[in-house]
Amino acid sequence: MKRLLLLSVAFLATPAVAQSVAITNAKLVIGDGSAPIDGGTVIVRDGRIVAAGKAVAVPAGMPSVDAGGKWVTPGIVAGFTRMGIVESDGVEETNDTAARGSPFHAAIDIAPAVNPATSAIPLNRAEGITRAIVAPDNDGSIFAGMGAVIDLGSDRTPVTKARAFQFMEYGGGGSRSGNSRPAMIAMFRNALAQVKDYLRAPAAYADQGKDALLTRADAAALVPVANGTMPLLIHVERASDMRALIDLKRDFPALKLVFVGAAEGWLVASEIAAARIPVIASALTDLPVSFDQLGATQSNIGRMKAAGVIVGIGTINDDEARQARLEKQYAGNLVALTKLPGATGLDWNAAFAAISSVPAEAIGMGAEIGSLKAGRRGDVVIWNGDPLELGTSVAAVYIDGVQQPLRTRQDALRDRYILPGEGALPKAYER
Amino acid sequence: MAVRISGARRRALPAAIAASVLLVGCATDSGARPATASASASKPGPGLNKGYSHDPFPSTYKRYPGVPTLVTHVTIFDGEGGRIDDGSVLFADGKIVQLGQSIAAPAGATVIDGTGKTLTPGVIDIHSHLGDYPSPGVQANSDGNEATGPVTAEVWAEHSVWPQDPGFSRALANGGVTTLQILPGSANLFGGRSVVIKNVYARTEQGMKFPGAPYGLKMACGENPKRVYGSKGREPSTRMGNIAVDRQTWARAAEYKRKWDKYEKDGGEQPGRDIAMDTLRGVLSGEILVQNHCYRADEMAIVMDMAKEFGYHVSAFHHAVEAYKIADLLKAEGTCAAVWADWWGFKMESYDAIGENLALLQKNGACAMIHSDDANGIQRLNQEVAKALASGRRAGIDISDAVAWEWLTYNPAKALGIADRTGSLKPGKMADIVLWNGNPFSVYTRPEKVWIDGAMLYDATNPKLRPVSDFELGQPGSGDVK
């Protein structure tokens, strides 16, 4: 009862004030691919990491938490999700992922739709996820709109960065919207040409309504994509499609492409690495679920990494509205591959980085989130065991230095039904 | 935990009594019929359940040869809650021979050192659509839902199962799955017959079919049927419509059964055949097990009363995310719950899913198991159980690893009516075995070797024992480690 009360108070509070904390005696994981440091300390001051490592002194007067040798890591950065913009996919009324019938595509900005009360947010927070890359879904165009980076804190301000990237679908998967591949490329080239027209004379760019190939709003939204100040995340799975996009980037060198999914990435890994295109891949895709991913294997990420690709883990089309927590399990599975003859996995340090610093870097936010290096947001998790191991629970979560409530709606249901059958009153009175 | 299967639910007279009744009938009828009566009317019935074939698509599965094998110094979960540390398992001629602390190697046996590894019964997935929703998931392969009417008890999943689904190989190599039930989808109230198969590639579906396993009838509650048919402007469009159509259908089935039972016993005019009703008659006579997709606690309770009304038994509720709310009712009915570890919230009826579902069911004495319903999830059912087990332990429900293994093998075997043949490591049972390269409840562990009926059909250390379906042959990554 009391804990629930605290939770609701936290929700009602004004945006939480960033705080300072020192966590000592930790098995400290920086998140950049380096090995854990025993006896480590991390210092968060005013919501930002100021130091993390072995010989770090706790500033006088700073609140301090002894981790007792437990694992302490940066919060997980969920690499590709639709968290916070849909409560339940099957409940259409709650689903803001795609905009069927909208005349706008690239101009769609999901940030205002992010609802911090979405039940996936407290649930994933309680499992150590602190930030998420949130993308809209496409409908009627290759362009889905602009995604955001959010935090999972229990406050009213979930958006860390609005309009963090543009999202696009390419190939045989996703919503093809009646497009062939050449038609998608034509649409893309035309869009960038129209962006140039728009830039030449924004006021004169006539808004032609639904008949326009690119609305004024869409053209404006694509300006930062065209000039490379906004990353363009492209969902693509087939090897030849990735080659086609690499070719396209040669014509538009300013584009900052990021591949999402990339099931056949290992077949073109050296080309992706040479093109310096980061990848947010699905970790355990290993079935030819479509003709775009005949070559799918769980060794994909390991092989891409070995070829020099910057590759993190995301969850596109994988219950991405609510199960980002599974990324820990996925990363652990990639470690398991290192023991499997013929497979290529990731060592533990790289696997953890694939769900923390790498996705942040992929979208150009590596200086802001994803590791415990100085200057990053104070997103820190204390774990009751190896964070990639099944069933390891979370002891504490800090977001921007603020300790977070960890109780979920599921916990309340469990407590209500821990004993079957009604008591003196119906179950509805047990809370 | 009594899971009633075919024998106990059968209402048939013992064969000897039935035969004498028929003889009497024959004598009485002899010569008493008018000349215009059909010839069949004057004959005795063919005998109960002999009026038509109950097995027109018989299994042609044959076990592959194996060698007598002894695994030593291995951690054993026997599938029925037992655990042996540093133990030994011997199997030969397709069967489990012996379990123990130390077993002398018979002459000619292959001996495998299992130090640091774990040996378990092969994983059984009671809910799969491999083969009827195969990879690639293109429209041309979409054969799992005959969504043209809410009652399609006449369809049999085995007639959709594509034995070249690449998913079978992943379930074997990554998941250690040796037996699985392939079901029709959940668009319909009566989705049709399921089929149980061994996870051994064959040219035909019949070549995979588990010999002698009972059929299942897939039924579905809740959102899916009412959405699919409601959107077509027809019944059912509500949950009350779901149950109404169910009951109407069972009432017809009871009448069909009465006619056929009478004919088969007493002879007379042969009733018309109805392929859908054959299946429902099979349920009412206890020959076919009901596998019922149902999420919500209140709906499961209604279905169990409907089953009583018409005299059948629900073997297992699948996707039973709210089973934890009625663990006591499920226990009382002897109905199992097949659940996910942590899927939740993807639709309204999955909103109340909790990670402690399996543990709460176990704690309250109900029959519980994990299931996948997913070509990816089936590759990691051991990991799903590990998560569920950890959730339970955090809630103070102490269940041992060895008992939790029942959720992966013995309990699904019970709910499928094959627990006398597989699902645990009892001597005489099928040698369906996984040797894991560590603790199977660790994320860092994979199957190292898998035997089905004593034949080694996967070996992580031998690329030649990596099955490749016809579809993947010659494709990018063919024969790759997946």
Could you give the count of β-strands of chain B? 16
> Which bin fits the share of residues in helices of chain A?
10-25%
* Percentage of residues in strands of chain B: 15-25%
Largest interface: A-B, 54 and 62 residues
Structural class of chain B: alpha/beta
**SSE pattern of chain A:** HEEEEEEHEEEHHEHEHEHEHHHEEEH
Helices and strands of chain B, in N-to-C order? HHEEEEEEHEEEHHHEHEHEHEHHHEEE
Q: Strand-residue fraction of chain A? A: 15-25%
What distance separates the N and C termini of chain B? 38 Å
Unreliable segments of 5+ consecutive residues of chain B = 1-40
Q: What does the largest sheet of chain B look like?
A: 8 strands, mixed
Radius of gyration of chain A: 22 Å
- Mean of all residue-level pLDDT scores of chain A: 93
- Multimerization status: heterodimer
Are there runs of chain A of 5+ residues with pLDDT below 50, and where?
1-16
Largest sheet of chain A: 8 strands, mixed
How many helical elements of chain B? 12
Per DSSP, the total helix count of chain A is: 11
Report on the structure:
The complex is a heterodimer of chains A (431) and B (482). Chain A is built from eleven helices and 16 strands. By secondary structure, chain A is an alpha/beta fold. Chain B is α/β, with parallel strands linked by helices and 482 residues long. Helices cover 26% and strands 19% of the residues of chain B.
In short:
Chain A has helices at 2-12, 120-125, 181-200, 216-226, 239-251, 269-274, 300-306, 326-336, 348-353, 357-362, 409-416, and strands spanning 21-28, 37-45, 48-53, 64-66, 71-74, 76-81, 129-134, 143-151, 159-169, 232-236, 257-261, 279-282, 311-314, 380-383, 394-399, 402-403.
